[in-house]
Amino acid sequence: MSTSSHDADCFMCGLEQTEDSAVVFRDSLWSGEVVPGYDVPGWFVLRVRRHAERITGLDEAELASFARRARDLVAAVTEVTGAPATYLMVFGENHPHFHALITARDAHVPADRRNGNILRLRDEHADPDAAARLVPAVRRVYERLADADAHPLLT
């Protein structure tokens, strides 16, 4: 990635420096990773690697690949965590750089912390070490799913 495609003041652009141990995958357009401050076990961020604001800021290649990356990362997180629900949320107000927060919702999460209220778990259940321990398993499943996409079954 060219540094000219990054905003020096953008938190999400700064994640280009994230240690590989926190990264599920990186391709030329997207990165999936555990993000400091959102490091609840089962939470990952899927972010476009260049600075682009809102979904309307994505170029054609980013837009065309977003759904597949999101689907595969959500599926990998769900498989590894066994979560009965995995949310894909896009806000962009706090960090105006297109990204999606993927949150696995454990069966034990109380009703008042489900749906949009799951974000309250950010402070209540942050555990950077436990979040990091999930990365290798999520990476393996993601790679298997992405590889299946690269070589679709012939029918």
Description:
The structure is a single chain. The chain has a five-stranded antiparallel sheet with strand order 1-2-3-5-4. Helix content is 34%, strand content 17%. The longest helix has 23 residues, at 128-150. It is globular, with a radius of gyration of 15 Å. The model has no long low-confidence stretch (mean pLDDT 89). It is of the alpha+beta class and 155 residues long.
- Major sheet: order of its strands? 1-2-3-5-4
**In terms of structural class, how would the helical and strand content be classed?**
alpha+beta
Helical segment count: 4
Distance between the termini: 37 Å
In brief, what are we looking at here?
With 155 residues, the chain is α+β, with helices and mostly antiparallel strands. The protein is built from four helices and five strands; from the N terminus they run αβββαββαα.
What order do the helices and strands come in, and which of them pair?
Layout: H1 11-14, E1 23-26, E2 30-33, E3 43-48, H2 60-81, E4 85-89, E5 99-105, H3 121-124, H4 128-150
Helix pairs in contact: 2-4
List keywords for this structure.
single chain; 155 residues; alpha+beta; five-stranded antiparallel β-sheet; 4 helices; 5 strands; 34% helix; globular
